[in-house]
Amino acid sequence: MAAGNPRLPNFILLDATTRISDPRNGTATAWALTTAGLTIQVSLVVAAPPRLSHFCVCCPGRDATTFAHAPEVVCSAGDHALIRADFTTGDSESQQHFIYRARGPDDRPSLDLIPDFTGYSRAELLHLPLGFVSSRNHLVIAALSYGTKDSQYYLHTLSSEPRSKWTKKLLQVELPHGLSRKQLVIDHAKVIALGGGLLGWVDLWEGILICDVLEPGAAVSRLVPMPKLLPSNKPLYGQSLPRAIRDVTFSRGYMRCVELEELVELRVRTVPPLPDPWDMDELQDSELAIDPPQEDGEEYVTVGWRLITWYRALTWNCWRKGNRVHSDELGSVSPQLGGSACGLKLPLKDLRVAAPILRGDGDAVYLASALHKRDPTAWIVAVDTRRKSVEELMPCSAKGLYLYDPTYIPYVLTEYLNDKSDGAQVQTQNACHHTPRNFDGSEKKRQRLSQTESEV
Q1: Higher pLDDT residue, 36 or 42?
Q2: Where do the record's region annotations for Disordered lie (predicted)?
Q3: Strands (E) located in 371-415
Q4: From the centroid of its chain, how far is CA 60?
């Protein structure tokens, strides 16, 4: 890193909603061209989790009305992020997709336009999110589709090399020995980069499809089943957002899984006996002549929650238990309400928590939390599952936040930026300036960009 610059966090929580602005410091910036040759700039503003990082997007020399709304981060895998932008003027294709990389081919942030992605995606019914692999000096995009007529999966890939086109292969899925050959339908919630050309499509209910997207031959994938669900989560199978209780990541040669379980207790609700008029001296007019029927009953009450992590190497045929932590072991916290400390210490088990995000090392888990499901105040809780401690409780905007599917996603950063000295330029916006590239390698568009930059 440059002298005086602190080392960046190796992992961030990235807000899926971008800001339409041009930041001046603390950013990693890259440029590309739209289909009409308009310059688009994307800058990464980094904050240590559990604070949220975000992208700033703008078209230099244009105002915010260039976009129909703030561009969105569709998905991420490793240090790749897919950004969708809807333009209002200047482009025949109003919706376009760009890939931001924290470290591009020249060890600096890069931004690439995916040509005709929307049209191909609709025609082939591609399933988002996408996967990304960096190979030599080019990028490979990978996607899955499912043929409803033949009940087969297909692998689609696109290279960033000039004049490349989408390719499509039948995906042969190999199930683990002894696993019943039921109809396999993978509805992946995320894609993880496993090193080399390997990608894993993660269905948080069923399993992980692992495939080498750089293999020139037939596309073969093997299924890694997910760990068994914890008891209270079994009724949720197929009926709820799996992200609300699970996450999977990959780091240092191991796939890791975390599962959150809400603990409930069955309690009997006893109704007190009704007063007998025989024993009453007065009967108030406000009292009903006939009391409504009342019955005893049972109800489930949330009494806490617990986390468990699992890990496995790519060559193993089993998951091994990592860390376990119970909310009773974490003590109390003093959250901020209305922008200031509430003055109360609340047992952490009293907070509603959901949507665990596992950091790559497998110890830190970030949870979305609130006092109630629809509470206007929300926090992100950082829990160290190895030390069984709360590292930090950070307020975040609850506007539009759905506790069980928050708008932020994990993003791996500094293993791509900090391991080489050139990555130090991430802290200085202008130091990252390089000529933007489009997948089609159009020289005419490059010349048009140079002219635009000189005018700006």
Answers
A1: 42
A2: 427-456
A3: 377-384, 389-397, 408-412
A4: 29
The residue whose two tokens read 């928050």 is 406
d(CA 269, CA 227): 36
Peptide bond into 129 cis (omega under 30): yes
Assess if residue 260 is contained within a domain.
yes
Neighbours of 234 (CB within 10 A): 10
In a domain, 308, yes or no: yes
Number of domains in the chain: 1
pLDDT in tens, 248-258: 999 888 999 99
d(CA 419, CA 415): 6
Number of residues that this document lists for the chain: 456
Written as one letter, the residue type at 66 is T
- In angstroms, how far is CA 277 from the centroid of its own chain? 62
User: For residue 347, is it within any domain?
Assistant: yes
Identify the domain containing residue 268 by its residue range.
242-272+296-404
Sign of CA dihedral 285, 290, 296, 302: negative
Number of neighbours of residue 326 by Cβ within 10 angstroms:
15
Q: Give the range with max mean pLDDT: 132-136, 160-164, 451-455.
A: 160-164
Count of other CB atoms within 10 angstroms of residue 244? 21
| Residues contacting residue 456 through CB under 8 Å, at least 6 positions apart | 39, 60, 61
Residues whose CB falls within 8 Å of the CB of residue 282, separated by 6 or more in sequence, listed in order: none
Q: Tell me the β-bridge partners of 29.
A: 43
By three-state DSSP, how is residue 64 classified?
Answer: helix
Structure tokens at 141: 């995009």
Which secondary structure element, helix H or strand E, spans residue 122, and what is its range? Answer: helix 117-124
Q: Which of 174-178, 180-184, 242-246 has the highest mean pLDDT?
A: 242-246
Assigned token pair, 107:
């060890």
Question: Is residue 33 assigned to a domain?
Answer: no
